[in-house]
Write a structure and sequence with these properties.
Blueprint: E1 7-13, H1 17-23, H2 39-48, E2 51-57, H3 69-89, E3 94-98, H4 106-119, E4 124-128, E5 130-131, E6 134-135, H5 142-150, E7 154-158, H6 174-192, H7 195-198, E8 203-206, H8 213-227, H9 240-246, E9 250-252, H10 259-268, E10 274-275, H11 285-296, H12 301-315, H13 323-327, H14 330-336
Parallel strand pairs: 1-2, 2-3, 3-4, 4-7, 7-8, 8-9, 9-10
Antiparallel strand pairs: 5-6
Helix pairs in contact: 3-4, 4-5, 6-8, 8-9
Length: 337
């Protein structure tokens, strides 16, 4: 019997009942529906797709839906405590990326960051691609990046709808086209502003195979030195540094493992920076489709193992104790045959 390589899913969302109740009362981007979710639903999907462990997180729009500053802070704390309790109940099946208040609330974000990483022992944090109309390389967020770097944080960047993007047609909901662009925009901002190079102890994961970043990377590298020359300062990346910094991101494969995407990503990104992702529960049938596409994609066993679990094991030290079990379920299959 051939071995089944188990997966670590770094792009797997939760929607606790108290969070869903608030979401039901706010306007969310066109094209996003609110799926039903439960821990049991996550575990069932994980078993079906041979996912050993999922690193759970809140998706967009995040805790900012609570409105006023204190309400956002309270909701973030409640979500993180919930995620930590779920992790503790199933330590081999779940880890979590902590939620933070909007980064415009610098004090609240740093307090929650320390609580999540030092007290709750979160596996990392989720940041959205922009806050208050500013991408993640903005000077206003430098203090938060300093703290993330000090704590050697794994940062999972998830796209969020842009308030500036006009709604033009119901055939183009923002998650369809704009989300991949938002990912590329904030990644470019982090690199050109110098933040990515300035804070090397942050391991930063881009969602959805990096959005449009792999496709645009060389264009950005070649054109930015001229078009942005008046904006670049001593901290900014230039020339070959731009491409080097772009390739230093990690890339999850949530909804991004079609053959044409993999052809591009695997030729460009380091093989040890590719991670598995599902985007459950916002994608169910879609997650299964892209999981099947990844299964069918021709790659050698070593590369598949890296993408499925090997690279994640290097990022998340807590999971390394289970490495032998993650490698294969071949023996389990033989024992139960």
């Amino acid at each position: 019997m051939s071995a089944i390589v188990r997966k670590i899913d770094v792009h797997h969302h939760i929607i606790p009942d108290f969070y869903q109740d608030i979401l039901a009362g706010v306007k969310i981007p066109v094209g996003i529906s609110l799926p039903m979710w439960s821990p049991e639903a996550s575990l069932a999907l994980m078993d079906e797709l041979h996912i050993e462990t999922s690193i759970i997180s809140l998706s967009a729009p995040g805790a900012v839906i609570a409105g006023h500053r204190n309400g956002v802070r309270e909701l973030v704390r409640k979500c993180n405590d919930y995620a930590a309790a779920l992790r503790d109940a199933h330590p081999d099946r779940f880890g979590f990326f902590a939620a933070l208040p909007g980064l415009m609330d610098q004090e609240g974000a740093i307090v929650e960051l320390k609580h999540a990483l030092e007290t709750l022992k979160a596996d990392g944090v989720t940041l959205f691609t922009s806050y208050g109309g500013k991408y993640l390389g903005a000077k206003e967020f430098e203090t938060i990046w300093c703290e993330l770097d000090r704590l050697h944080t794994v940062v999972h960047i998830h796209p969020i709808h842009s308030a500036e993007a006009p709604f033009t047609t119901p055939f183009l909901p923002q998650p369809l086209i704009d989300y991949p662009h938002e990912t590329a925009r904030t990644a470019s901002d982090l690199v050109l502003s110098g933040r990515k190079r300035q804070f090397p102890h942050c391991r930063v994961i881009l969602s959805h195979a990096g959005g449009t970043m792999p496709y645009l990377a060389e264009r950005l590298t070649v054109l930015a030195n001229g078009m942005c020359s008046g904006l670049l300062d001593d901290n900014s990346s230039r020339g070959g540094q731009i491409m080097e910094d772009l390739r230093s991101f990690y890339f999850d494969l949530a909804l991004g493992s079609s053959a044409n995407v993999l052809d591009s990503l695997l030729k460009w990104a380091p093989s040890d920076h590719i991670l598995y992702g599902s985007d459950f529960p916002y994608a169910v049938d879609e997650a299964k489709h892209f999981d099947g596409a990844l299964t069918d994609y021709a790659m050698d066993d070593r590369l598949r193992e890296l993408c499925y679990n090997g690279n994640a094991l290097r990022l998340f030290s807590r999971l390394r104790v289970s490495e032998p079990e993650l490698r294969s379920t071949e023996q389990q299959g033989l024992d139960t045959a």
